[in-house]
Amino acid sequence: MKQQIGPKLGIFFFFILAVIWLVPFMWIFLSSFKTYAETVTLPIRFLPGSFLNFDNYKELLGTLNFGAYYKNNIINTIGILVPQLFFSSLAAYAFARIDFPFKNIIFTSLLVALMIPIQMILMPRYNLMIKFGWFNTYLAVIIPSIPSVTTTFFVRQQIMGLPKSLDESAIIDGANHFRIFWSIIMPLCKSALLATGILCLVFAWNDFLWPLIVINNQERFTLSIAVANLQGQHLTKENLIMAAALLVSTPVIIVFLFTQRYFISGIALSGIKE
């Protein structure tokens, strides 16, 4: 009897969690079709007057220039995602497969660096961007975000779970380290790369604090900054903010829905060692 109750309780628990997540999302979705008058009406209206009211989206993509902010987000995200996965994977391979002096000390130091609050390094980063002349450019957002200890750690764990006999066979055939990395290790780490890639994509797409510091040119604003600017000092149009929030979150949600099985398997396999 207990064996039958256990799975049902688990299903019920996750169902409640799904509802807790879904209700706010549904509120955002429905509010994005409302007029400003409908958002301030009492008692609160859950449903919009019409699901064919796209005025909020027209204003965002037209008057408020959200199309340009989408372009900025795409450039920043791709500029961070691709180099981060490549260089973090190279570092992960080195830490997992190559013996060099002070390897463990360096890797431990990197993990300890994760404990440093991001606020402590914002000012040094900002000063570097000014000295390099990158302020108000894509480079100011992209370059500091490329190094990732988290991505390196996850990919390293995946590589350590692969048999070393693969490397030894390739070395006998005359392959160098880069050939082993690119032709053997990387194809076997697709799940880990996809999992960390999704995490990187979400972080880069939603990043707010760092772009806010290094970008003050409206033409270079990201979506997160644009959404924050919709909140006025005296008047806030909730319907516009909800429509903007939906525009910002939808691409990431779609990517995750189509890649969630790779994400789950990548996270699960990242802790396996040979």
Q: What secondary-structure arrangement, pairings included, does this model have?
A:
Blueprint (H helix, E strand, L loop, with lengths): L1 H30 L4 H5 L14 H7 L4 H32 L5 H11 L5 H14 L5 H5 L6 H12 L4 H8 L4 H12 L1 H17 L2 H6 L8 H7 L8 H32 L5
What does this structure look like?
This protein has 274 residues and is mostly helical. The chain has a single domain, classed as MetI-like (MetI-like fold, Orthogonal Bundle), CATH 1.10.3720.10. It contains 14 helices and no strands. The model has no long low-confidence stretch (mean pLDDT 85). It is a multi-pass membrane protein. One of its GO terms (cellular component) is plasma membrane. Residues 70-259 form the ABC transmembrane type-1 domain.
CATH class bucket: Mainly Alpha
- Percent in helix: over 70%
Number of strands: 0
CATH superfamily: MetI-like
Main beta-sheet annotation: none
- The CATH topology label is MetI-like fold
Number of discrete domains: 1
State Rg: 23 Å
Distance between the termini: 38 Å
Give the helix/strand class.
mainly alpha
Instruction: Label the CATH architecture.
Output: Orthogonal Bundle
Total of DSSP H or I helical runs spanning 4+ residues: 14
Give the overall average pLDDT.
85
So what's the overall shape?
globular
